[in-house]
């Protein structure tokens, strides 16, 4: 994020001491347990013109994701598979820490983590999105925009993207004379599994689920695990300049798997 | 729209809203965040209009906004840069303040940069006073007066600068309540930063939570006793 | 865009528009204030199917410093449409249209702000269009002005806006997406409602000279209504301050 000295406040050491003291007592600054998610509010179909959309409020972090289904050519190495493109933009609307301009490494990393989780699981049966193999398939364009940044964009973005897929609709098609006719009628997307993204921050000796902004900024490092409903891991990303021991990684994985239940519970409201 | 005539009652104004007519009503003065057109006083910001105790002056007080320094303000600052003859200090304002080395020590000295960071380094908290500011230049601070200087201990709480009078309370009553019940000293910066210094960290934390609670809730008779109960419950 | 060929019948025999409105009817308007925590001020506006969110940061330090103005605040504005806000997905890169709208929105707001009160600072306004249906620039101005007030920034007045369109010889208020695409004229207008001053005026299509006055008068009437909705939204958001506040 923006590191200009005068635009980002120097965080006094008093604050990190306070956080560590609080964690030693088993409590975070906002009173949460170490493995507890902030309260989540999820609304689907918030954008009428999008084929799918969701607004997630995770504590004060707010992220909106929109799904547009676009008729497109398949990739040459996957002629009978639909296409998935995930894009994210951290705009200055959401935080004084974000700068205007073309996508930076944080924007791109966020998009690619969400993409990886959805693609690997796979959350969607991409084969069912093929219309004329080798020629025309459905492209799923997911665009992710944070509106308010208070830590842990990955989990909020992943939830919003997954919710947009679960609640979204794709038009039915017919093929006449080798041309695609897009029909009025719509159907659900071919979802194979829900995917949950769980991020853990390491602060000193402590592992915290769903870091707030302050915890993120004071953390040594973070790690995200993405899970299918079967508990399989479909994406991992370590973030930040610090390091984890092997034991810490495995402990984080266990904590994340347990915490993923909270995320799946939210997603089950939809379907 | 005629101003509300009852003492104590108040109304919310939006920018451009007419507060009072300039001619006509005898003895009504309008003070605060207003601007004048030919015939009217209009509000400049989101604000409240309230008569003073004697019902003669209508005060228009902004509800929100950044801290803009005034000469004489006591502020709590965070050192963000160590220079050659001065420090740059974040005072929670769109304007970054300057603390010249001449305002730290009564004796005139030229100190090389490496020594400057020995006096105050990046991240240090200071209690300072604004000695000059006219918007065309950065505000200038001093720590030469007694009780000013580097903050060695305590807990920093940040609130909206506009809420500072509410936290202080009428004639300082809220502050006195916190100080006596929690055996802490509460130092209020005009820039929305408050320092609580107590005999132990636990009491400081309670004081910090109490201040955030006062910021969040309106100050009524009920609030004073609610705060008392809250503190008692935490101790 | 072909203005003469009407692919859709925009006015029926009863004089009703495609969405059932009469020529002088505004779409439903909803305004919510202060929902974003990071922004110093924010407002969310729904005008018909348009959904926009505006966030204001400032006054704050100008980055880069050399762009600061010595005697007033630097007002900056970015209007952007999110890719899923339109029927055909829009690429995230800024388009020429977005750049122009960013400029005219800034110039619609600037006369209302006491920029001289905050020299050497920046006031940044960001607007995201979440869903578009004709009139996003007017909805953006409504949201941005409300957000500026919510941020506690000193202003002469709020700013409200509406677009007047033309279907054949009939002037219609607040054109939607279809009317914008197939109608015969589009005139967005912004005003400081209490001071009666125009701060944005554009037009495309063809207007007869006498229609301009008529359009401005029509707009002023609806702008005053929109202003009342902005005022109510702002006051409701701050209603709690009214309960027996004591100032030391």
TrEMBL record, chain A:
Record's keyword terms, sorted: Cytoplasm, Exosome
Domain of life: Archaea
Gene Ontology MF annotations: mRNA 3'-UTR AU-rich region binding
Coiled coil ranges: none
GO annotation, biological process: rRNA catabolic process
A Pfam family per the record: RNase_PH
Subcellular location: Cytoplasm
Occurrences of domain Exoribonuclease phosphorolytic (ranges): 36-171, 195-259
One cellular component (GO) term of this entry: cytoplasmic exosome (RNase complex)
Main subcellular location of this protein, as a coarse class: cytoplasm
Family per similarity comment: Belongs to the RNase PH family. Rrp42 subfamily.
Function: Non-catalytic component of the exosome, which is a complex involved in RNA degradation. Contributes to the structuring of the Rrp41 active site.
Subunit relationships: Component of the archaeal exosome complex. Forms a hexameric ring-like arrangement composed of 3 Rrp41-Rrp42 heterodimers. The hexameric ring associates with a trimer of Rrp4 and/or Csl4 subunits.
Name of the protein in question: Exosome complex component Rrp42
UniProtKB/TrEMBL annotation, chain C:
Domain Exoribonuclease phosphorolytic residues, every copy: 25-153, 157-221
Sample GO molecular function, one term: 3'-5'-RNA exonuclease activity
GO biological process, one term: gene expression
Keywords: Cytoplasm, Exonuclease, Exosome, Hydrolase, Nuclease
Pfam families per UniProt: RNase_PH, RNase_PH_C
Enzyme Commission number(s) from the entry: 3.1.13.-
Gene3D superfamilies per the UniProt record, alphabetical: GHMP Kinase, N-terminal domain
Location in the cell: Cytoplasm
Designated name of the protein: Exosome complex component Rrp41
Record organism: Thermofilum pendens
